[in-house]
Task: structure prediction
Amino acid sequence: MKQKIFMYLFIFSLLLILFQYVNSKNVFEDDIRTIEKCNARVETLKDSVAVLNDKIFELSYFNIEHNEDAITYLENKGFDVPTLIPFIKDEIYKQNTVKGGNPLIPYAANEGKSMLINSIKILNHKWLITDFSDGIFWGELLIKYEVINQNEVTFDVIDSLLYPLQ
Result:
């Protein structure tokens, strides 16, 4: 009788071990599949990041902050470039406060409104581009600027365009 109990106990233990082995094998294989999927996703995301970095580099090409020649030109003239760039933008935005609208914008605004410059991108040490709007009409300006000293800058509109209403 004791021998049969040990045999049943042995068979039960064997079945339990077999069950544990099969279960852990399935869990292990599932984990491997999950890791492979994650690795594939990581590779896809790395490719996406590389494409986005290339796009950022391409878009920042015409930007004074990434134009070493323009920065060197301004530094050779004795200007502090990190403070000069915000100063130039502030001087253009100050033009928005002029009564009757910004004098740099050669277009009349809609009734009761004024044309205001919304955003500015400094291309290099000579040119910048802006967009303007009165809420209904909008356009862009290409402006030549000249820094006279650290506290004075002049602007000359090279060209402008007003988008037609659609």
Observations:
- The longest strand covers residues 138-149.
- The two ends are 97 Å apart (CA to CA).
